[in-house]
Amino acid sequence: VVLGVVLGVVLGVVLAPVSGGVSLGLTIGGIAGGIAGGGNNIVAGLVRDHRIRSDIKKIEAALKRFDDQEKVIYGLLERVQRDFNCLRQLKHKLGPYNVEI
After folding, report:
1. Nearest residue to 33 via CA among 8, 56, 12
2. pTM flag (> 0.70)
3. Closest by alpha carbon to 24, among 13, 35, 34?
């Protein structure tokens, strides 16, 4: 964009005497177009950055939920392990009755 604007200004000024000043009008139009294009790039960048920040927040929230669920599952598995150990001890105490667990 910058290169196009610079090239347009140089050519417009150089051709001004030959074109009767018409090239200066075109140069101004080119500069305006370059500025508008630059503005569009800035806006597009801001929108992209906003979407990225929004996506990061969503990912962080999902990871937090996953971490919370993992803690709950881990706690439940610890309870199952304790209960299973209790059943093993009970089976050992009941030994002669041959209880399957």
Report:
1. 8
2. no
3. 13
Give the pLDDT band of residue 37 (cuts 50, 70, 90).
confident
For 41, the token pair is 């790039």
Amino acid at 70: E
Q: What is the pLDDT, as a whole number, of residue 10?
A: 73
Q: What is the DSSP code string of the chain?
A: -HHHHHHHHHHHHHHHHHHTTHHHHHHHHHHHHHHHHHHHHHHHHHHHHHHHHHHHHHHHHHHHHHHHHHHHHHHHHHHHHHHHHHHHHHHHHHGGG----
CA-wise closest residue to 83 among 97, 63, 56, 101 = 101
Question: What is the Cα–Cα distance from 11 to 42, expressed in whole angstroms?
Answer: 27
